[in-house]
Every structure is written in C-alpha cells, then in structure tokens.
Amino acid sequence: MSSEQNAPVNLLLVDDRLENLVAPKAMLNRPDYRLLTATSGEEALRIALRERLAVILLDVVMPGMDGFEVAQHLKRLERTRTIPILFLTAVATDAREIYRAYDVGAIDYLVKPLDAEMVRKKVAVLVALERQREEIERQARLLLEAERRDHELRMAELRLASDRRYRKLVEGIEHVVAWSADAAGRLTFVSRKASDILRVPIEEFSDPDFWSRHLHPEDRDAVFDLFRQALADGNDLAVNHRMLAGDGEVRWFHTGVSRDESWTGNAELHGVSVEVTAIKRSEEAQALLADVSSILVESLDHRRTLPELASRLVPALGDVCLIDEVVSPWATREVARAYSQRALEARLGASKRSEPLDRGTTPAVARVLAERRAELHDATDAGWLATALGIEHAELLERLKPASCLFVPLHARERTLGLLTLVSSMPRKFSGHDLALAEEVGRRAALAMENAILYDEARRAVRAREDVLAVVSHDLRNPLSAISMSAGLLEKALAPGANGERSGRLLQTIHRSVEQIERLIRDLLDFGRLEAGQFTIEPGVHDVRGLLQESLELFAPLAAKKGFSLDVHASEELWLRCDRGRVLQILSNLFDNAAKFTPPGGAVRVLVERDGDAARFTVSDTGPGMTEEELSRIWERYWQARRTSGAKGVGLGLYITKGLVEAHGGRIWAESTVGKGTTFHLTLPLANPPTAPERASAPAHSAPGA
To answer: What pTM does this model have?
Structure first.
C-alpha cells in the first residue's frame, strides 16, 4: 500500500456555534481522519480551496452565508465540485429543504440530534469512496507515466540507433566536426576528428568555457548570437567564423546549427562545422596580393608606395609591419611602418628605432639578409624581439604580447634591397602559409624597389653624364690652360741664361695644376659611382688615432703655411669599422674645407669623442661662416660658397663626403654662424677593439693631442 493510502484524510466540520461542533468531533475522532473546523461559510470556502477534503459536514442554518450558499459556491469551482457534502440541521427539516439540499449537490441530509453510528457509517462510506477515487487517479497517473516512459524508451532506442549511424557517418569525413551542445552552449558530444582538426585534447571540449577560449575574439559575439537565435526560433542557421587552434593557428569554419529536443525534453543545439581554412586563405591571399600589386605599380617612388604597402599588410598579416632598406652590408634604415589598433593601444606608435639599425646584433636577421632566405621565429621573448627590431623599450612590446615574427628579405637579381618584418600578437601565431604569403609579398615589393632604383639610376646616370661633360668642358679647361702656358714659359726660361728661380716657380705651378686635375678627376669618378649607386667600401677595424694622425701629417704643413693654429683632441682609444682609405678621404675633405676658409691668425679645432655606439668627429674653423640659406645648400652638387677668392674646385667635395659617411652607416651635419665660423659633425660606427695579436701586427701611430 502506498504512503498516499496510509495518510489521514481531511474532514471539514462547519457550524456557526462551537458547541455544536463538539459532538461531531467526538463521533469522528479517529487516527485516519484529520478534522478541520470552520464557524462560517466564508471560512469554510477558504479551507476548501486550500486543503484537499474527503467529506464536508455542513450546517444548514448559519448567519450570513448559509449552508446552501456554501454548497453552491463549492459546486461551481473545479477544485471543490466533487467533494461530498453532508448537510446537518435541527431546524430545516421539511421536505422542501431536503429537496433543496439535494439540488445544490448534497450527498445526504442529517437531522440533529445526530445518530453517532449513522454519522460514522456514512462518513466511512464517503471516505472509502474518496480513497478509491484517489487510487484510481494514482493508477491513471502511473499508467500515463509508464506509457510516457515506454514511449521515451522507444524514442531513445530510435535516437540511439540514428545517432550511432550519424556519428559513424561524420567520423569518416575529413575536415568536419559534428557536435551537440546544451542550452548553455556546453558541448555534450564532438566527433573524433575535432581533436585532430583543432589540435586540442578531446577532454578539453567538455570545458564550460571551450567556445570562449577557442572562438576568435572578433567572431565570438556573432557566433553566440547565432546560438541564441537558433535556440529561440528553432530555425536552421549558418555562419562563417574563425577558431583558434591549440597551436595558436587561426582556422576558418562554416558552421550550421539547429535546435532539437533531447530525451529529457530540454532544448539542445546540433551543429556541423566544416573547416574551410584553405578556401578562405586562398581568397584572402588573392585579394591581398591583388591589392599589393595595385599599390606597388602606382608609383616608381618606393618611399611613397612602401608605407601604403605596410598599411595594407596590417592587420591582414600581423599587428606590426616594418619595412627597412639596406644602407650597408650590416645596417638598414626604416622606410615604412604600420601598427594595428592593438599595437597602437600598446603605445608602439611612440617607439623609437635605431637609425641606421646595426643588423649584426641579431644573428637571425643578419642571416636572413646574408642568405636571402625568409625565417619564422617565436617572439614571446620581448627583449629579444626589441633587439631584433631595434626598438629602444622592450616593455612596449610586452604590452602587445608578441607571439611570432617573420623576417623576409627583399632581394632581386642577387641583390638584397631591404627587409620586411611582421609581428603577430597572442593568441595568433604565424604558420607556414603566412610565411609563404609574406615571401610572395616580399618578392613583389623587391621587384618594385629594384624597378624604382633602376629608373632612378638611369635618370641619375643621364644627368651625371651631362654634368660631367659640362664640368670637363669648362672646369678642366683652366688648369690645362695653366699647364700649357707654364710649359711654354718654362721652355723659354730654361733657355741658356734664363732665371733658375723663375723656372722653379713655373714648375710648382705645373705641379699644383696637375694635382688639381687629379683631385678633380677623383671627385668626378666618386661622384659618378655615388650617383649610379655603385659606390662600394671595404670595411675593416682601424684605430681612430692612427687615422687622425695620418690625415694630420698632410694637413699640418698647410696650416703652418697659411698661418692658423691647429688644435687636435682625441684622448680616448676608439676603433672604427670602416674603409680606411675612404675615412682618410672624408677627413682630408673636411680639413681642406676648413683650411680653405680659415684666415691667417685663425684656428682649426678637431675633436674626437665617443657618442653611444659611434665615434663623433667635430671639425671647427674660424672662417667667415655661412648664412642659413647657404648652410642649407652645402650638400648640393656643384654648389660653392663665394666668400673667399681662394675657393677652388667644382663643388663636389662635401657632396661626396656626405655620401662616404652614409655609406659607412654614419651621419654628417653642419652648424655655422656668420662672422664666427663653421663646425662640421660626423659619426662613424664603432667596432670592438682587436685582439692583442691583431693589434701587434697593425702599424703603430702616435696619439694626436693628449
């Protein structure tokens, strides 16, 4: 027997006088009865609505709402219409009252004083009927539950068989992930290929935050909205989105989802995600390369097109894009940079880079430039990456959380022209596909750079040829005329009886004219090489003091002859990585320029000191100085200041000097004040001192100016 059958049943006794309730309560006082009492019709209705009642013993005559009205209300309500009612009365005993009681739904009509045995018998019968009714309802519920369970079992068997066939089908399809998820988005099933495709352990798919961690941040909201819409509307929906694989690589998927009801009756999502990475990458690569080609053919000025190229590569290929041009075998100079919004938020836009950048400090980059082969590197070490990029503050890169970087040489016709650098941030990591695409971009950029260089070289060659012809036809005419005249006079002077002193002066004139022609020819040759971009240097490690001493040995006699003082100071021992002959040419040009404009009684001061990773040379004179307009033109070809009649040449000295300094990866600039003189500054890269055996084999020089 169930617990429901053993539970006491509720009996409601209703009479407006409490003393009249004593007798019925005594008659029905049994453990299987729970007696409830009410002293008004209103109270009786409230109890009937609140409690499940087996029988109501209702007094007919009551003030306010009488028993008949209470019965009528009870029969109108769904909850109470089946409750048996026994009317009790000592007054309303005529036939009309009895008929009225039956009309309002009473089971029986008992007249007071009550017969205790009759009351107990009638109530017992009604309670038994109530218990039978409850049992019938319980059996009906059990039957319905059994039928429901049987139906669900048959449906579960069908679902299981169908699910097995479905799973067996999808398990054999490559690049497809079949999955199910509950209403909260938590995966309840994934096909076995999912682990291989996303490179994630199979147990990780059951994590509640799987979608949040592996959906691409830019696609996360769109996919979650799709899930919610599918659950709400029940429509089949689809979306293209990106996922972050376990190795950090970005994968593209086409995902279709639909809503279904699980065997428990709860809504769930069924999805099929087809990997379309190869298709999307091909589409994106074609679009990117088309844009790259369009940008590069807009102009032959690569300094204008390369910044546009860098902007197009971000964020398509990374968060940072740097493009440098090669200025020497070991140094590069930036020509373009671009940053993604994430990189700008990390304040990388305020980062400074070395200028020019010594590429010998990072073996990986030096190898890329030397071997002309692109490389992919892990970049999680922000310090290493800062050194490789030449960025001063590694903490800026740490904010970006770099993941990987690509170094792509820009080379054409066995000539390295530049370097393309790309950096990605977490969680994205570059793949072999990204490397191949960056190499193709680099190949096209290098061809554009080479075309621009060849075009510029052709224009400069034509212009240089015309300039050289003009110079040769005009400026060589004067020294040649001097040689011709001096030779003729010398011929007469050397005749018998001629003046020997005058012959000596004429010979000196011829000698100076020849030197002037030789220097002019050397300058013209250097100028032609610089303009054609064919200028080369042969670097080595050389002592600054030795170079300075060697230059001053030729300059000191000129200073003594012109009557100005010479002050040289280079107290620190420094070593340069340079072409010895070209540095001597640089110093000679600057010393000659200072001597040319320094009057008798004036002074030329030479200072050499360390300036970071470079040696800084300062050459000052006390000549007439220059105006701002003149100072802005000193690096132009053929331009000469006209402040002294002693100025000779064609105006190529400083132009060539600037080219020689920059070919070494250095920098040169000038300051001048009218009436006070001019100061030239130049920097050349320092080198590590040679070993003791190397230093012992080098020629010895005395140190100038302690």
So the answer is: 0.45
